[in-house]
Amino acid sequence: MEQRISLVTLGVTDLARARSFYEALGWGGAQQPDGEVCFFQAGGMVFGLWTALGGHGAPGIELAHNVRSPEAVGAVLTEAERAGGTIIRPAGRADWGGTTGAFADPDGYVWEVAHNPAWTLDENGAVTI
C-alpha cells in the first residue's frame, strides 16, 4: 500500500447547508454528482461531504486511499487484513463506475480503498478530480 490519504469525507446531516458553509469559507469548485455527495479539490487531496457516510449516517468520518487500478483495490484490502484490519466491504463494482471496498483499522477507523476512473492519480499519489 502506498503511503497516501486521497480523500477525507465528513458525514453531514444536510448536504446543502454543509456545502454552503464551506463555500462561505472560500472553498470553490465543488463537484456534486448527485444529492448525496459533494467534492472539493484540496491541494493534492479531495475533501468530501456525504449524507450517507459508509452506510452509517452522519456525522462521521471516512478516509480514502485511491489506487491506480481496479485490481489494486482487492490487493490493498488483503494487505490491510493481513496487518490486523477488518474488511468492512469487499472489493466490488460501484454504482458510480469505479471499484471500491473498505477496511477498518484496529481502532475502528474506516478507510475506503477505491479506483475511480474519472479521477487522475499522479506519480506522487496526488489526486485530481
Tell me briefly what this model is.
The protein is of the alpha+beta class and 129 residues long. It contains 2 helices and 9 strands; from the N terminus they run βαβββαβββββ.
List the helices and strands and how they pair.
Blueprint: E1 7-11, H1 15-24, E2 37-42, E3 45-50, E4 60-66, H2 70-82, E5 86-93, E6 99-104, E7 110-115, E8 120-121, E9 127-128
Give a description of the structure:
This protein has about 130 residues and is α+β, with helices and mostly antiparallel strands. It has a single domain (about 5-129), classed as 2,3-Dihydroxybiphenyl 1,2-Dioxygenase, domain 1, CATH 3.10.180.10. It is built from two helices and nine strands. It has helices at about 15-25, 70-80, and strands spanning about 5-10, 35-40, 45-50, 60-65, 85-95, 100-105, 110-115, 120, 125-129. A seven-stranded mixed beta sheet has the order 2-3-1-4-7-6-5. It has a two-stranded antiparallel ribbon with strand order 8-9. A hairpin with a 5-residue loop joins β5 and β6 (about 100-105). The longest helix is centred in the middle third of the chain and has 13 residues, at about 70-80. The chain is globular, with a radius of gyration of 14 Å.
Characterize the largest beta sheet: strand count, sense, and whether it forms a barrel: 7 strands, mixed
Tell me the radius of gyration. 14 Å
What is the tally of helical segments? Answer: 2
Average residue-wise pLDDT = 90
Q: Hey, roughly how much beta strand do the residues contain?
A: 35-45%
Distance between the termini: 21 Å
Order of helices and strands: EHEEEHEEEEE
The CATH class turns out to be Alpha Beta
